[in-house]
Amino acid sequence: MSVSAKHQEEVRKLERVRGEIIAQREAIGAPYTGKDVTEQVLDDLRQQKKKRLEIAEREPYFGRLDFREDGHAAAMPLYIGKTGVGEEESQKPLVIDWRAPISSLFYSFTGGDAAVSYDSPDGIVNGRVFLKRNLLVRDGELQRVVDSYEEGQDNAALTTDEFLLHRLGESKDNKLKDIVSTIQQEQDAIIRTEKNKAVFIQGVAGSGKTTVALHRLAYLLYRYKDRVRAERMMILAPSRMFLDYISGVLPELGVGDIRQTTFEEWAVELLEGTVVQESHAAALERWFERKTTREEREGAPGRIKGSVAYAQKLRESLAGFEESLIPDEEFSPYPGIKLSAVQIRAWFREEPAEEPIMKRRERLLNRLKRWMEIQLGRGRWGDKTIKAAATAKWKSYSNKVPSLTAAEFYRLRFPGDAAYKPSASKRKPTVVPREDLPVLAFLHLRLYGTPEPAYDHIVIDEAQDYSPLQLSVLANRQRLPSLTVLGDLQQGIHDYAGIRSWKELADLFPESDTAYYELDRSYRSTTEIIEFANRILAGMEGEAKPAVPVFRSGEPVECVPLAKGPAALAAETARTIRAWSGEPGLSTIAVLCRTADGSKRLHAELKKLGTEASLLQADQQAYSGGVTIVPAYLSKGLEFDAVLIADADELSYGPEDAKLLYVACTRALHRLKLLFQGEPSPLIGENSGR
Ligand SMILES: Nc1ncnc2c1ncn2[C@@H]1O[C@H](COP(=O)(O)OP(=O)(O)OP(=O)(O)O)[C@@H](O)[C@H]1O
């Protein structure tokens, strides 16, 4: 079939499918506003469907696969889209959801006439593929038709990756996007991993880890409809700004209501207002605004307190506390009526051990109260004076059974470790440093538990910055392990708190409950940028894993020496911003500085020159795109069309800063330039053009 005939065929098909989608959408009226509860529930479902149809109307599908199942006479064209659509009358599928079992063929098929198979709920289905076609539909218009496999054609000439490259070449705005139309085979395998696993993903910068984790949530909600609920899922990311950056993906995949937060916010909430965390900026300042030594990082409180050994110390301390909870004295609410310490301890032990300690304490004290009432009998209990005196005795006894908040417990039992002062007033929360939050969360769960239901699934992004203690606190909030834990050890710039090997985290689970994946291909940057960043990696200690580029060539990376002084830096920065701003493909531009202080100074200098740029700071809620000046350590997880590294000199980036410079360079999609005053950083030495 000729190219234009194919196009015509697809235009007709698109018209038919969109006609059906529009008709179905229009048939769903305005939201129900009445009081009938059943009707409200039904309408909720209708309105959700309407939202999905609205997305489908713009882009009903992105792929077509002609598949002949074994035993069937003809191949069936299957159209694959973000949401499944069935014909209203016949209920025949018009569009198949990308998460359906059969759609996995679309992602895993890479050509050839060999038999293929996919896992369906009824078992393995075998068959053959006759056509794999990518379709680009934007706002209801068919824009591109690209075949990556057609039976009987010279498929070597068919462009397998043309569609992907087209997508990667697009410029980015300030939000991460979904990738349903171009999910790669190795990514699809992760997305479709069974629910009850702790899935660890080690992936190079730009390999799609964050994106894949979000698609996995959408997959789990579809595949395990009856068992998982969006309200019982949670995404943990390093900052509010990062969460804002990824916030568009799930709604675009038709998924809502998933809690997205940072570990620290989650912990503070768990601790029920008893503590607040010190500012994020202050915490970062400690590690990034001045040079730190390896000894400082190794011996950092976050690493020690986050270790498995420390968790054990906390457990032992809790056990000791529990053991000594009941005072060594009898309880006697009235002369002649008494209960020995031995008896009270025995009662305490009867409480279920898996219940939090303070809950058991409360139940024990209530039991004592009931016992007291019964022993005194109706006559004496009815006597106001006797009742008041007995109750006072009970209160006084209760006061001797300690009740502590997590923050009080930690300060009392680990006075040398707790790095905060108690708040001056009981009603005011205690301000605690970030590294103490995991400890307090751990203690709180053992002491008080939480009324919140367990989580069905938890996603942890940038997990190389997590400690084993943090992960174990989270895993304790699940009945069965079901987590997606992703990160990149090579980007572990917070190594004063995080791990050095995934084993540290994976060891928390039985091996049969874990799955480990590595992603080596980088989709974000051009080949030139990836190769440049790989050379920085090579300078890193330990075994470096270079990223493999998807072949997408761009401009060479530039390293430019500058004369000394802030004026020369500002002038060159302004010139670069001007030049890049004039290029159509470059809509987000970042200037990265080693420190927040340096970023502020450059921002002020640029202002003097009349160059507009926004300054990105820790504790910021959102990243708005355009031209931004960013401290390198805050750029982690984000990406920009073009990146200018303003201070790639030997003082800013010494050999121990390889991870930070690697993070900085890998933020760039299409363009990367590094400036240096004085000697270039040894990390780019040979690349610097000198
Ligand atoms: N299969 C794909 N098709 C199209 N684009 C993709 C694909 N996989 C990843 N990308 C793109 O690559 C970029 C990097 O993705 P993402 O931010 O999820 O990677 P990451 O591994 O989390 O990166 P980092 O560790 O550097 O933060 C994004 O722009 C994403 O849209």
From TrEMBL:
Entry keyword set: ATP-binding, Helicase, Hydrolase, Nucleotide-binding
Residue intervals of the UvrD-like helicase ATP-binding domain: 182-526
GO biological process, one term: recombinational repair
Listed Pfam families: UvrD_C_2
Keyword Transport included in the entry's annotation: no
Record: residues binding ATP: G203, V204, A205, G206, S207, G208, K209, T210
PROSITE patterns found in the cross-reference section: UVRD_HELICASE_ATP_BIND
Keyword presence, Hydrolase: yes
Identification of the protein by name: DNA helicase UvrD
InterPro entries referenced in this protein's UniProt entry, alphabetically: DNA_helicase_UvrD/REP (IPR000212), P-loop_NTPase (IPR027417), UvrD-like_ATP-bd (IPR014016), UvrD-like_helicase_C (IPR027785)
Any one GO molecular function term: hydrolase activity
